[in-house]
Amino acid sequence: MGKSSKLVLSGTIAGLVAGAVTVASNRTARENTKRFATNSSTQIKQVITLARENREEFVEHLRSSGEKISRVADHASDDMKQLMETSQKMKSHFDEVKHVLQDVNNEWKGMLQEVQSSSKRLDQGQGEVPIEHLPEGGTDSENTEK
After folding, report:
1. What are phi and psi of 59, to 5 degrees?
2. Distance, first Cα to last Cα, the chain
């Protein structure tokens, strides 16, 4: 026996002794304990008598209860399997959404880099770009008003 089991056993024995001393020294506690023991033993005897007299019904009732518990456990097991399958499907859906969002993110990054590199290629030091092919006689805004 290990040290911790000896401590548990010693504590249990000490508790039983303390309880017995309390019951022995207190008249009300003795009477309550005696009444409880009498009632408990009477109830146990009644259950045993009922089981003996109605053995087949008692056994059938226990068998029926066992079958009900078994069915409930089977349904719970099936539900757990479905729950696990559903959670696996949800995980795969989340992974798929994650990959799509990563692709969209990479596309946006590529577009932003492309825009930034194309704006650097523009030569802004040349000034204004001359407009060719304007109708004669004025600016573009004057010709559109006519």
Report:
1. -65, -45
2. 112
